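REVIEWER CHECKLIST
Item 1: Sequence provided? yes
Item 2: Single chain? yes
Item 3: Sequence as submitted:
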Amino acid sequence: MKKSYYFLLSLPLIFGFIIPKGDCGSLLFFKEGTSITLTSYSADDKIVGSSKTIYNKINQTASGTEVEATQESFDKKGKSQSKSNFNLKCSDGTLFFDMKMMLDQKQAEAYKDFEVQVEGVDKEIPSNMIVGTTLKDANIKFSFKTKDGTSLPMMNMEIKVFNRKIESTETITTPAGTWECYKLTEDIEVKSIIKLKASSVTWFSYEAGIVKTESYSDKGKLTGKSILTELIVGK
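Item 4: Structure as written out by the authors:
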């Protein structure tokens, strides 16, 4: 799925998602009122913040289903830091989400007053997860301009997500419960003024979405993790 459009960059979104073994209507967060809380930790297990996403309104479209959602981010003391709105899309049991959600929150706050052109391939999560298979790559390119139209090539950025693999299945327990999960791995490359490389591991459940994630540096050092700490199912 390719697209190119202009927008004033909003804050990035970190969210849990749930893929059905069927049509989009069986996704848990495609039930109005569902809320998902992810708590983030440093490499030494200290809380650094959290995010709570509430899925508010379901819309049927020609290509599938969309859900309107709101997200609130909190610091390590539970103080609200930001609120934002976004839509998620699902078509034929596959979830699509904008790669711009991968942009670091501090970066997004710095860029929010600029006009940004975005081109890329959305990240996909399919309904048929098979251990040992590879998922599609994704990428996004940001081109920045001032509001009066002046190009800022030094600020341009490209993010690539590749080597996306379904490694195994594991049982994961968090404060929100215990689930059978698929272990997904991927590599990430960010090109801007400098080039950065990293990798991540995600434990994903059809019933609970993202249950746990771990982030690693290019040298394989753990840099942080997120855990599903609350899941409330809507009607």
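Item 5: Key structural point noted by reviewer: The longest strand covers residues 157-174.
Item 6: Recommendation: ____
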